[in-house]
């Protein structure tokens, strides 16, 4: 890769490096519409304003961060820029402004673009045009001391979304561009990487050209939960090499209290019994559903009124020796009349922050929620887990792995959900701050849904975020 950078790039690098360092490596992502699910307010073509910040389960960066070991952070309110329908030239043109808008200079930028060039069939659709823009993107980031992580052009079948099939020539450009990325990364000295490990999971091996397997996308182009998980898994493998994992989760039941105002605001984050905080609460199931078992002290568990569905709650020790709250789904249910993914079938574990812990909070404090999860292999019921941190009622919340389409694979999965941060404008009142962990179950297409499906939650926290 050339190191003949322009004076403008060098000046920008100096300005960025003069910014305060972040306490943890910050990651950013810029690209076309496939980036949009990673932040509900990241769309730069049709901007959206919201008091809630959501990282969708259709977003591959949400999965990458859940799987990469907690060291890297990607603020969803500032570090996600999506340009639906746009080509590589648009991403390149907006990259300097994107970098300048972030409160902290990122250590690495994930880039996803090129598929729209091929789709549009214009002068910018060629191998030469796409790779020329990619090279300039990589050089611009390198000039600023930032790593570049390319998402390859993902398998695509426009016919699934009602469009026109790609021609062999278009698939040829797609394949050649991805191979060029491998060469670029190989000669970059470790500054550039390609998340190509996802392609074998996403691509239909029987297709002529890079077409996605069934259920990987929502429309032949945009990843659903399944596709996003595999792309995120490939990105996480790279991030774990660049930024070795750390463990930010609680290791004991120490809580926020007088004399310890910066502790975990939750009671019994370790999900055990006999703590003295009062036994956990099972909300009686309705509608022909069955909810039984034991809930961790200070926590409440409820479930949807889904006829035939059962959930058995238990306190277990996982393979690493950590206590966790387990939910084992059984029985079964039949989906009928579904026109899309509604995720009306679920079980939910939650807790409101006590008044004693709330007294430690003031306007200007920034908080976030984290929780570990594990899903056993063979899963055929659980679509995805989700974590919400609510404040001032049910309409104000930040969420990790929020609303989605499609379902997770049957392999064993473990990770850490982490909500976007929220800065308080006033001290919360009693019952104003909550954490909710939900296991959403399959809701589409029509037909029977049967076991197994076992998930565990543990080591939860709502904590103040130290100033950067």
UniProtKB/TrEMBL annotation:
Descriptive protein name: SGNH/GDSL hydrolase family protein
Outline the extent of the SGNH hydrolase-type esterase domain.
Answer: 46-227
Taxonomic lineage: Bacteria, Pseudomonadati, Pseudomonadota, Alphaproteobacteria, Sphingomonadales
Q: Which organism is it from?
A: Sphingomonas chungangi
Q: Which GO terms describe its molecular function?
A: hydrolase activity, acting on ester bonds
For this UniProt record, the keywords arranged alphabetically read as follows:
Hydrolase
Q: Which CDD domains match?
A: SGNH_hydrolase
Q: Which parts of the chain are coiled coil?
A: none
Respond yes or no to whether keyword Hydrolase is given for this record. yes
């Amino acid at each position: 890769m050339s190191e003949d950078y322009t004076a403008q790039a060098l000046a920008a690098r100096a300005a960025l490096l003069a910014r305060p360092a972040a306490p943890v490596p910050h990651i950013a992502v810029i690209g076309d519409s496939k980036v949009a699910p990673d932040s509900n307010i990241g769309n730069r073509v049709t901007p959206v304003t919201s008091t809630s910040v959501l990282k969708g389960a259709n977003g591959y960066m949400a999965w990458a961060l859940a799987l990469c070991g907690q060291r890297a952070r990607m603020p969803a309110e500032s570090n996600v820029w999506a340009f639906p329908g746009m080509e590589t030239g648009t991403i390149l043109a907006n990259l300097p402004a994107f970098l300048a808008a972030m409160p902290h200079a990122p250590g690495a930028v994930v880039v996803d673009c090129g598929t729209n060039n091929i789709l549009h069939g214009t002068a910018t659709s060629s191998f030469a045009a796409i790779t020329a823009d990619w090279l300039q993107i990589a050089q611009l980031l390198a000039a600023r001391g930032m790593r570049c992580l390319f998402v390859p052009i993902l398998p695509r079948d426009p016919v699934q979304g009602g469009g026109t099939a790609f021609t062999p020539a278009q698939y040829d450009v797609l394949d050649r561009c991805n191979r060029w990325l491998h060469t670029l990364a190989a000669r970059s000295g470790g500054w550039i990487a390609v998340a190509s490990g996802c392609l074998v999971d996403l691509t239909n091996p029987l297709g002529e050209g890079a077409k996605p397997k069934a259920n990987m996308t929502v429309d032949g182009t945009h990843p659903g939960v399944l596709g996003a998980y595999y792309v995120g898994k490939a990105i996480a493998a790279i991030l774990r090499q660049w930024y070795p994992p750390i463990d930010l989760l609680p290791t004991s039941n120490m809580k926020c209290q007088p004399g310890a105002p910066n502790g975990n605001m939750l009671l019994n984050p370790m999900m055990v019994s006999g703590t003295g905080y009062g036994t956990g609460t099972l909300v009686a199931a309705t509608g022909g559903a069955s909810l039984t078992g034991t809930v961790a002290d200070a926590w409440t568990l409820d479930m949807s009124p889904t006829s035939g569905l059962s959930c058995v709650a238990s306190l277990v020790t996982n393979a690493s020796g950590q206590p966790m709250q387990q939910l084992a789904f059984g029985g079964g249910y039949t989906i009928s009349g579904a026109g899309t993914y509604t995720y009306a079938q679920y079980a939910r574990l939650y807790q409101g922050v006590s008044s004693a812990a709330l007294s430690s909070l003031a306007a200007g404090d920034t908080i976030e929620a984290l929780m570990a999860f594990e899903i056993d292999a063979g899963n055929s019921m659980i679509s995805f887990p989700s974590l919400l941190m609510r404040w001032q009622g049910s309409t104000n919340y930040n969420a990790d792995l929020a609303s989605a389409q499609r379902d997770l694979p049957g392999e064993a999965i473990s990770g850490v959900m982490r909500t976007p941060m929220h800065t308080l404008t006033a001290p919360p009142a009693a019952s104003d701050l909550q954490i909710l962990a939900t296991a959403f179950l399959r809701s589409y297409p029509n037909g029977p849904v049967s076991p197994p499906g076992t998930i565990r939650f543990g080591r939860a926290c709502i904590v103040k975020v130290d100033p950067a």
